[in-house]
User: Fold this.
Amino acid sequence: MARIKILVTGGAGFIGGNFVQYMVNKYPQYDIYNLDLLTYAGDLTKHRDIENNDNYHFVKVDIANREQIITLFEKVKFDYVAHFAAESHVDRSITDPEIFVRTNVLGTQVLLDAARKVGVKKFVHVSTDEVYGELDFDPTTFFTEETPLQPNSPYSASKASSDLLVRAYHETYGLPINITRCSNNYGPFHFPEKLIPLTISRILNDEKVPVYGDGKNIRDWLHVLDHCAAIDLVLHEGISGEVYNVGGHNERTNLEVVKTIINTLGKSEDLIEFVTDRLGHDKRYAIDPTKLEKLGWKPTFTFETGIAQTISWYLDNKWWWEQIISGEYQQYFKKQYSIIAD
Ligand code: NAD
Ligand code: TYD
Assistant:
């Protein structure tokens, strides 16, 4: 019997990378193809433990390169696609929105065309709760799958646009799809431009941590492995055409998150530096995951167990993040945080 072939786009990044490792280890009977352009956010050193596995394959391609993508799909004939590849950082989308439209919108459309052409069994589009816009601070309100899309940043607007294209390919051409909308992830191999890995890496180096505005904005944090399990479930069991929200009810203010990390590492809260707020900064995100729970998903980490695991991982894996915060990252940091950059 032919082996099942699963294409994971963005598998050199944070969540896609964790998903590739999760799938390679869980399903030796599947072939897992990691497709990635290796932008600033992608690196293959994270896969050193699996790179020689027979069921792991890597291909360097730009998802917006129509010719190469179509040729690849026609050659390999993937059965399933889990689409993670994207420009993913809100701050970068505020400085330079254009690449977000190219990668997230055009790139997704190219993949949809290729998936349609070879007739994949399922196209899972990994989206974000940020497409719903923001909630106010009333703790009884949550994003459901019926919440209208009201994206506020160029990043979330590009993701919402790609969601609509995925939906349209299902309605128009009958492409089997699911869209997942997850809350903020954290865990191993998280690129240190995002709040949690930025804080851990800077605190470990006794450097100031930039907190935007008053630090009271709320995010709903999910460990990346719980997200991976959700995508695995949706890929296999999700009802075609459906949207599934992913989140574990772990709402924290940014200040609470930063203080938890500082206190766990036994450092001083004087390292917190309040800096100018992000433009259009969404107040609060919070997910109602009931629909996914009914499909059989349950998170395994609480925020406390997950953040403890993540902090220990960064302590044990300096080899990974130290190579990243040297080089090009330094220039990004200086430009983004001129107030506290040395
Ligand atoms: P990331 O920035 O860590 O990784 C993105 C990956 O995509 C990188 O490996 C990069 O090289 C690759 N890539 C970028 N442009 C490409 C292109 N043109 N062609 C091929 N590959 C390209 O992102 P992440 O945090 O792992 O997010 C993955 C997905 O999950 C994104 O679609 C994001 O919108 C979504 N998401 C992220 C979060 C979060 O908290 N990080 C939460 C919910 C959903
Ligand atoms: P981030 O990790 O960029 O994820 P997102 O914007 O997709 O939610 O940011 C999480 C929260 O932390 C968000 O409210 C912005 C805030 N933040 C800071 O306060 N300082 C920082 O240096 C960064 C990167 C984020």
